[in-house]
């Protein structure tokens, strides 16, 4: 078994743009759930809205990069408003069901054959990333940082992705230290108490939903840029659940917990895959096919989510005193 | 044979299962992989109903000057290999169609084919007399859809009873309920595959579903309740359980679609409405089971105790009802009904897959929310309405959008009547 390759692959996962995208989407969930107590089970829907908003603006309307980005953000704000108006006044579990339903509606709409001209239906859309890579200032060539090798494309997307995560994380950190953030945490703990102080809790929750949704849509764009392709099958409810696993792993009411959680999530997936496949190749494990080994990892994800929730609900970085559960 | 099935299933899982493909990590995000060796093709099968139509000329041309033609083979199949992805015009030469088998009305010819990310594009031309049968009167189509909708709605109602009772008695929104549905169908398939007669396999699968419900409550939910876990963490635990169960089923069952015995059934004509035999049986079975469950809830001591616990667990406990016993039974009965619903769903779709429960879970939620979370009779009513909506909407909507209408209506209902149709007007904010 080639441990060097396995560990290099795992190391690549730590800084991969996909991990950054997970971290950003999980950060959005941290704003929703960790700070505002909103059970959003439709983060995959926000990601799809962002990715498709960006891709459709670029391909169908020929929008330049900044405009396409604005369109994607505007679409996610609209989506958040549509979701929030009916449900933010209701109990938490209603929001959960409505958000997961809305995310599925988005997925059905971008999959349907009747809109193939715009959305590409099940095949999705491709080649909308040129505007982004046209801005790449890094000269073509191969670069290596320690064990890791990049070409100019990978390096550019990695820098931008993690730069965006850093900016958003700092923004959340600042927001949650502000009076606005304190009110939000107050709503999470006891909305009646905050309401009795004269705060309009509906507006605060809506603002939190919009901010987390924007993070989700930016994450959705990041998710598609490395391959330059968006496919509806990637935005099912399982994506949302993986994001929740990453968030709860790191700690839901922490800023860097979502980043740490996303990194651990991908590193563990990569390591288990590498080790299991290595053992199968070496003939140590004979009762698994390599595809079953891949599936085994997702069984572990589910079990990990259950165990985390039962035994360490505050996550790795969290403080048990600050828990969003009522 | 079973081993082979699992192996083939596992092979297919990587390519077919959308969730597995979606989740697989992408260590190198290189897209511009060398594509020279790859073959792109446009293909299809020309059939009149189930009879293949051979010897028909089909031509593909592109704006870049490429042009190729084929004739359909004895099975009606045709494949045109094209040099690159792009936009092609596919023309069916109407003159080569056999007599009495014209192109169906409204079929676009030539057809524009645009390659997306996949390397094979399918094109279906509808030909012959069988294609024209679809234009029947609106009333007949509506009646057909209503019957199908009732059948779907009632099987939804079966599965919704468990979800609704569990919510009513414990407050848990159980996301793993969809996997109980899958389990029923997979267990029935497995038992039938080892040679048991169909009715034994179905009864066995329902019993196994009940056992699984008992084990779940015994090993997981009861200890959590006794720890005093809050509802939101329990909901997230149920999501973890759903993921784990789904991939355990994928692990053993594979990503293929399998059929239960006699999944193909003849079409019957009942009072002027065309309906497949299986749909009719499913309709009758679910109706009978639902009436029995309703009578049990209304008339028996145990039913009364269940409703008392759903109403107010503390008060029920104070008046001498063993709340844990009631909840345990609710899990067992709810899981058995979910397993039966799963078997009927496998006949209705038709097919058994590892993620079939996930597909139906949101429809169950829609039904339960529409009727009122926690009210059993509301769940029954809501599920039937959702089933009707899903099927009737296909008259106007594309079939691949049929679930959207039901989900959208659920969101709208929450806007105006958050407690649902039969829910009590208590504060849910």
From TrEMBL, chain A:
GO terms for cellular component: plasma membrane. The chain crosses the membrane at residues 6-31, 38-61, 67-85, 92-110, 155-176, 208-229, 241-268, 275-292, 298-317. It comes from the Bacteria. It is found in: Cell membrane. GO terms for molecular function: branched-chain amino acid transmembrane transporter activity. CDD domains: TM_PBP1_LivM_like (cd06581). Signal peptide: none annotated. It is a multi-pass membrane protein. Its main location: membrane. InterPro entries: ABC_transp_permease, LivM-like. Keywords: Cell membrane, Membrane, Transmembrane, Transmembrane helix. This is ABC transporter permease.
TrEMBL record, chain B:
Its main location: membrane. The chain crosses the membrane at residues 146-168, 180-210, 230-254, 275-298, 329-348, 360-389, 401-417. It is found in: Cell membrane. One of its GO terms (cellular component) is plasma membrane. It comes from the Bacteria. Keywords: Amino-acid transport, Cell membrane, Membrane, Signal, Transmembrane, Transmembrane helix, Transport. GO terms for biological process: amino acid transport. InterPro entries: ABC_transp_permease, BCAA_transport_permease. It is a multi-pass membrane protein. It holds the Pfam family BPD_transp_2. GO terms for molecular function: transmembrane transporter activity. Residues 1-22 form the signal peptide. Belongs to the binding-protein-dependent transport system permease family. LivHM subfamily. This is Inner-membrane translocator.
